Amino acid sequence: MVSQLTDAFARKFYYLRLSITDVCNFRCNYCLPDGYKPTGNKQFLTLDEIRRVSSAFAELGTEKIRLTGGEPSLRRDFVDIIATIRENAAIKTLAVTTNGYRMARDIQHWRDAGLTAVNVSVDSLDARQFHAITGEDKFTQVMAGIDAAFEAGFSKVKVNTVLMRSVNDHSLNTFMNWIKDRPIQLRFIELMETGDGSDIFRKHHVSGEVIRDKLLAQGWQRKTQDRSAGPAQVFVHSDYQGEIGLIMPYEKDFCETCNRLRVSAVGNLHLCLFGEQGIGLRDLLGDDEHREALIARIQSGLKSKKQTHFLHQGNSGITQNLSFIGG
Ligand code: SAM
Ligand code: SF4
Question: What is the average pLDDT value for the chain, to the nearest integer?
């Protein structure tokens, strides 16, 4: 189906990132260094609201939904959320981005409910460093979760690694050895500046170019991507079963290929990760009668999507940290 979500710059949107909670049990130093702190009496989208919003996006041509957070697997109804979204035949890919702490226990249930893809965040392959970055001594548990994903039948697992100077930027060889015989797509994400994270950004941001130069020098080749793929530049090598991806939001033209929209855990449509207050959808999610109005609001909201983010000017919009909008 052709996407009916087209913006003023002729970009088409096939991919929705849906946050289902702000809550997280980790304290990653670049995201929630002091842990999740509840603010006010925030109510996250209910299962019925998730059904309505996902079905509206499916009707508008969305092919892929990624569940994110916070930590999405903290939702007690996570399996029901997966099954509900997969009721939409148009949603061919349903992915989750998770810190992985529940995977060893639950991934088979997620897959049985209809989850088709999984991204796990692993910033270090050293257990002590993993603990230092995330605030949680759960490296072994997360690794067991990745094994469990393969056992459950996922043919590939994506791993997100936030690239940080003097933390993991010298570990390319360790990461490469790890994926040599494993079908893992390891994606280095450039550290992004957020409202809360200016200091860490100044200290640890390093461009993905460093990695790209090394990969190209060692014979890795860039792969072409399909229309609902994420923002990574993906590299392959005949000696490696795994792949390496680079997500470089500061690179010129990064926004040209933008194909994704976001809905926050309180039901605001965000046109850009580093955007604005968001367009409220929640007043239209309470019952099925508002379906037409919901679809119209999503379509008209998209007209105000800007051509590019303003990160280069140190302007991170209202994004204090990525846990509330899902990265
Ligand atoms: N809790 C889940 C997790 O960590 O995978 C999902 C939410 S988390 C906000 C989504 C992704 O954003 C993770 O891969 C995380 O590493 C990444 N992230 C968070 N803050 C970031 C930042 N300031 N710069 C780059 N990536 C960031
Ligand atoms: Fe939690 Fe994910 Fe943020 Fe880490 S990156 S604190 S796991 S939301």
Answer: 91
